[in-house]
Amino acid sequence: MNGEASAVDRRREDIVRANMPLVGHLVREMLARVPAHVNRDDLLSAGYAALVAAARGFDAERGVPFPRFAAARVRGALLDELRGLDWASRSVRQRARRTDSAREELTAELGRTPTVPEIAERLGCTVEDIEHAEDDVHRATVFSLQGFTTATADDIVTEPGAGPEEMLIRRERLGYLRHAVDALPDRLRVVVEGYFFGERPMADIAAELGVSESRVSQLRAEALVLLRDGLNTHLDPALAAQNPPKEGCVARRRAAYYDRIASRGTLRSRLALTGPDGLPVAA
């Protein structure tokens, strides 16, 4: 009996060793999507623990290959690890608020969207400082909007299912996201759909819009601020209240955008955008 147990343990150890590169791959994939301050070693530890647990719970008779079975569980563990982290460090959040305020002030003063150098001059920092801070915020925002899933439909099916209430909330949030994107001004919507959902190169989007790549970067920043604040207004008013828009034309445009999101549909229509499993419904 002990011999059989030892043999099973050895097989599990062999499976874990053989699939350790899978954890490294999934961690690298996630690090490309999150702010630079997220610790790689913390993610690896969570991923390896999930791999060991997957080896213990694997049942070959189910007909699912172990790498696919394990990948689903490792992704879930990495996501749980990120949810437990302070997503944007305090300094990143402070820089984001200062940048947003400077952008709004300059927009009101200039009557147009300010350039990155103009924002940097107002804040007394370099263009590189602004770009690095915005990259961190963009990654965090996109993660929160899209969630972390590069899995195929088959992978998702093998993941532990969410409870009915959790799935309903997730589907409503995805519906709000779709409506929030649809409600964006045309140029901002083209940038978001092309860059984040279509994974198109920025140069291609710039060519389509007839603008420079730096202008596309500005539009991307503007769109993500609108999306973040629009979703917070409807889904988490307490967060929205922490960064209220200033009076004036900028505040009026934002209020109109928030109204467009609400007018896009009802709870029923938002839920109709995904199936019971939370996957998008084909148009």
From TrEMBL:
InterPro entries assigned to the protein according to its UniProt record, in alphabetical order: RNA_pol_sigma-70_dom, RNA_pol_sigma70, RNA_pol_sigma70_r2, RNA_pol_sigma70_r3, RNA_pol_sigma70_r4, RNA_pol_sigma_r2, RNA_pol_sigma_r3/r4-like
Alphabetized UniProt keyword annotations: DNA-binding, DNA-directed RNA polymerase, Sigma factor, Transcription, Transcription regulation
The UniProt record lists the RNA polymerase sigma-70 region domain at 15-87, 100-167, 181-228
Q: Which Pfam families match?
A: Sigma70_r2, Sigma70_r3, Sigma70_r4
Please provide, in alphabetical order, the Gene Ontology terms of the cellular component aspect for this entry: DNA-directed RNA polymerase complex
Alphabetical GO biological process terms: DNA-templated transcription initiation
MF terms in GO = DNA binding; sigma factor activity
Protein name according to UniProt: DNA-directed RNA polymerase sigma-70 factor
